[in-house]
Design a protein that fits this description.
413 residues, mainly beta, 5-stranded antiparallel β-sheet, 37% strand
């Protein structure tokens, strides 16, 4: 019996040894469809990227009973099938109806910048977690979560249809009751580890919370304060991650605060301070209620050498997108838009490697979409096209998408 068990264990170890280098390179060898569905805003319109070549296409599949702020979308990274999406409050399945088992309690602020995130649960087959944030500008938020079981048939019309999923009751994670609006989930390069990064309102403190098979690992959560590195207390409106650069850009909601850059090590989960971007602060006073962002968003170029900054605009200041060149960190920020806009909102890099931009050209006007191409280039070579698609998207921010997760393999039947 001992010999038999020992040989069985040895066989499993050999299989793992063979599969590990394959898994290690799986992401590089597999097309990743995790970002092809962009569902956001209070309209039926969204963007879908073709699986064949990632060309952006306008679609009208979304349930319009949705928040005007940020959202989160889960898509199967291997098949490209839409799984579910949320604005931090409602959760819709792939049929665009409330997911089975839905109950209120996520409490995400549906007008906020990053009220919802989605991540797969490592080591679990077809299990996901929604993370929602109730923060509203200067009012600190709580972090709630809910598990999504994508093995459940849910609202699927028949047994032959892929599962539509089921939501478990949301819970308060008690991670914090003082979160800023900005938060992000980061995965490692091969999709086996994930971390939630959050910011404490009116501080220079960030929490790094691992995501494990059961949800958020509060016991393993750590914090770091960057005040000694020169980061001022702030309200972080948005966190933007670049795998190529290994950096997070922190967008301040406050006036008189620069964009700050942090380094994140995806091998160790360690967060450290990098630098601030000179002259990126907006000193214009906020004069319009609920129009209270200084820097609304940032997004990285594909190679991680350029950062694009969406300056929101306010009383006396028009909206603009600027380029910050990490190869010339003391250089002047370069404007990208052909002309200023009334309000500048979300930025997001698509799987086609272009950056998309939400804006309002004038007060009371529609929420339009622009496209920024050649974004690895210096500012004079960058191309901006507006509007890229004509409809009113009625939304300020693009969705956060679930990071790539390596497929689970059942090694022992």
């Amino acid at each position: 019996m001992y010999y038999k068990n020992a040989m069985r264990s040895l066989g499993i170890c050999v299989i793992i040894a063979i599969l590990f280098p394959l898994n290690h390179n799986l992401k590089a060898q597999t097309v990743d469809y995790s970002e092809i569905f962009w569902l956001y805003g209070q309209s039926v319109y969204g963007i879908t990227f073709r699986k064949s070549d990632f060309t952006a296409e306008l679609d009208s599949i979304q349930n319009p009973a949705f928040g005007i702020g940020g959202s989160a979308v889960a898509t199967d990274p291997i098949t490209g099938d839409l799984l579910f999406y949320t604005d931090g409050n409602v959760v819709y399945d792939r049929g665009h109806t409330l997911i089975a088992g839905y109950s209120p309690g996520l409490n995400g602020n549906t007008t906020a910048n990053q009220p919802a995130l989605v991540s797969a649960l490592p080591g679990q087959q077809d299990q996901y977690i929604i993370i929602a944030n109730s923060a509203s500008y200067s009012a600190g938020g709580t972090i709630s979560s809910a598990r999504i079981d994508m093995t459940a048939q849910g609202n699927a019309p028949n047994a032959g249809t892929p599962p539509f999923g089921e939501m478990l009751s949301p819970v308060n994670t008690f991670l914090t009751n003082n979160a800023s609006e900005g938060m992000i989930v980061i995965g490692n390069a091969i999709g086996t580890q994930f971390w939630l990064i959050t910011h404490e309102r009116n501080t220079a403190t960030f929490f790094i919370t691992p995501i494990i098979g059961t949800g958020l690992d509060l016991v393993g959560s750590t914090s770091v304060n960057f005040a000694a590195d020169g980061m001022p207390a702030m309200l972080a409106g948005n966190l933007s991650w670049s795998m190529a650069a290994g950096k997070i850009a922190v967008s301040p909601q406050d006036t008189a605060r620069n964009v700050h850059l942090l380094d994140f090590d995806i091998a160790t989960g360690i967060l450290s301070y990098d630098q601030h971007e000179l002259n990126s602060a907006n000193f214009d006073p906020d004069a319009v209620a609920n129009d209270i962002y200084s820097i609304y968003d940032t997004e990285w170029s594909p190679d991680g050498t350029k950062l694009y900054i969406s300056r929101h605009g306010s009383n006396g200041t028009e909206g603009m997108v600027y380029q910050f060149d990490l190869n010339n960190p003391t250089g002047t920020l370069q404007p990208i838009l052909p002309s200023p806009v009334f309000r500048s909102y979300g930025l997001k890099k698509g799987p086609d490697q272009n950056i998309y931009h939400l804006f309002r050209a004038n007060n009371g006007g529609p929420f339009r979409l622009g496209q920024i191409s050649d974004t690895d280039s210096i500012s004079s070579l960058v191309v901006y096209q507006q509007p890229y698609f004509p409809p009113d998207f009625n939304g300020r921010q693009f969705p956060e998408t679930a990071p790539y997760k390596i497929p689970e393999f059942d090694l022992v039947g």
